[in-house]
Amino acid sequence: MTHPTGARSFGPAAADYDRYRPRYPQAALRWALDGPGRPARVVDLAAGTGILTRGLLALGHQVTAVEPDPDMRAHLVATTPGVRAQAGAAEAIPLPDGYADAVLAGQAYHWFDREPAHAEIARVLRPGGIFAPIWNLRDERVDWVAELSRIAEIGDTVDHLRQTVTDFGDAFAPPEWAEFPHATTLTRDDLLGLVRTRSHYLTAAPTRQAEVDHQVRDLLNTHPALAAQDPITLPYRTLTARTHKP
């Protein structure tokens, strides 16, 4: 199921989203695109502020960004010179049949209405083309990271996604999965800024936002792994699925 309010909550926070959200490890992007060669014609679907787009461009690929939110798309264009960015969604991709060698979706697939999205992604891919959703997920095997997720009401975990994303419909082969270790370095204020880019926070009432802010600061000040740390290393597990259109 999709959650339109949450999915469309990020636009007003586009600048902070781009500033605080982690980038994607190049090893994960290379694995996702193993097959099309380089440069591949890649669609970054639900591209947001262009974090994944810029990672793909750095690897030498030709990227078309598709993003429904006008504020996110405007930020993408402003920070990613020369990229082709179009208004569109996973369920209505404004590109011709067989256009792409690959379609990637960073931090977005869980928002899609899956059945129509699968049909559209298959339509714009050439035969043999790759579809690869990718997620940067906090490493909740670390206790303070698990507590941060609880405070911020973050539910997208590696185990949850592996259990709920089992196939991409009849148009695609069974998926392969890979996981890559990753980390970002944040100041204490940055960590609070990161939490403030989550959909639960952005859609919460001001009283709930203030409560989350207080609990994050309390975690920073009282947890033994964090109290004397600035900056802080936040560990991630980058999860990637890869399938192809036969």
Note down, in words, how this protein is organized.
This protein has 246 residues and is of the alpha/beta class. It is built from 11 helices and 7 strands. It has helices at residues 4-7, 14-20, 26-32, 51-58, 70-79, 114-124, 143-152, 158-164, 188-195, 199-202, 206-222, and strands spanning 41-45, 62-66, 84-86, 100-106, 125-138, 176-186, 232-244. The chain has a 7-stranded mixed beta sheet with strand order 3-2-1-4-5-7-6. The longest helix has 17 residues, at 206-222.
Brief overview:
The chain has helices at 4-7, 14-20, 26-32, 51-58, 70-79, 114-124, 143-152, 158-164, 188-195, 199-202, 206-222, and strands spanning 41-45, 62-66, 84-86, 100-106, 125-138, 176-186, 232-244.
What is the global morphology?
globular
Query: How many strands appear in the DSSP assignment?
Result: 7
Uncertain stretches:
1-8
Order of neighbouring strands in the sheet with most strands: 3-2-1-4-5-7-6
Count up the helices.
11
How much of the polypeptide forms β-strand, as a percent range?
15-25%
Mean pLDDT equals 92
Q: Cα distance, first to last residue?
A: 26 Å
Rg over CA atoms: 18 Å
Structural class: alpha/beta
Task: Spell the H/E element sequence.
Answer: HHHEHEHEEHEHHEHHHE
The helicity comes to: 25-40%
Largest sheet: 7 strands, mixed
